[in-house]
Write the structure tokens for this entry.
Amino acid sequence: MAVELFKLKVIAETTTDTVTNPEVEKFFYKFDPAHRVDGTITIPANAFTDDAGDAVTAVATTVTDNGYYLLFINGVLQQSNLFTVSANGSQVVISQASTVIASSPITLVVNNFAPTSSSTTTVET
């Protein structure tokens, strides 16, 4: 018998459904010049209010690799390298902020995602 290569004949189809499950939280603050030292603004979390106007004790933090922050000063989106949010949500620090005017609105938006996926594979041989 001659040598022959046997090949598998397989047909496979996979269907994947993904849901992003976004969770968006917004925090509001009116700039108090007492929170600025040498051009850097340090806002304690308890100076922010939530969507309902209630005081908060900490701002939400992002989920590693599945979240991000947006910071607006006077309605203008700021570059992400100009601010940091502490790991425990206790404060927001904004650098290069010497020109921010008293009572300017500052809004922090925290976007987190908890994606889920399910896949079904059908194989025919």
User: Anything to note?
Assistant: DSSP finds no helices and ten strands in the chain.
